[in-house]
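Cross-check.
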Amino acid sequence: MSVWLPTSPCTPEACAGHEGDSASIPHAVLRLAAAAALILLGILGAPPVRLLPAGPRHRVVRAWSTALVRAFGLRITVHGSPGSGGGRLLVANHISWLDIPLVAAALPCRMLAKSDIRTWPVLGRLAGRAGTLFIERDRIRALPATVEAMTGALLAGDRVTVFPEGSTWCGRAQGTFRRAAFQAALDARVPVQPLRLTYLRCDGSPAGAPAFVGDDPLTASLWRIARARGVRAEVRLLPRIPPGRYAHRRDLAAAAQRAVVGAWTGPIETGPTDPNPLPGIPAQPATPSATDKDSAKRPAVSVHHWASSSPAAASSLRTPS
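Predicted model, tokenized:
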């Protein structure tokens, strides 16, 4: 692996254990079978679903993503409202491969993922059909093209999700937000919306079972999550950072990270309730944020041209592990 790629100190042995009740083996097998059936349904249904108008398509994606997370026995709570439409960059802390359907359950979007995911059995094919943007993270020269592809998607009105820590952490600690992905938001002049993802036990402490860290095999992670009981997944949609507030991706990344860390360590202000909550997920008070009126007023801009591809620049972006 390239020396500039970010890493996490978290390991499966130290961070991914489950303390609490466990599901029986037959129950865990049923959970995995239900998840496999939903993934197969997603692969078969992705082409026609992508032909639907945005509203119905997003409802289908939210319902399917919610069903997939719940198939593993997790309950979902979403705090905040997706708000009005329009392109925006979603940035979240990164704990597990479950983060992808969890974010989609709250706010359907396109994901930025490492190219290795294409080779994953079944899940790789599903990711491709879902419109995932892929990055070859070991190729430093691919970074500018990736940022330009993200910028194009944002200008087209898509929501794009990035995990800017560049590596999964267990949820008890957090990595630094890398900067490069934020250049796409600056170039497209769209808002950045931070998200805080947490997996909690019944007593409110961080749950270890969902953590997909270090050299944890995907099969081991699947089985560990299927056996765990009493785990709750929580998504906090935090206030959007409007375009134009920060001129440099370094400052924008730092502001987004402060928002995510603040959502973990302290209370957030609340506002009106989501008028269209996802069926089965409790609608929580929304957090006030910049509206997409800012985006509608933005002038046409050109894509940022990267002067060079240095290790320092490339190290600012790595996709889900």
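The chain is about 35% helix and 10% strand. The first helix runs from residue 12 to 15. Passed to J.P. for a second look.
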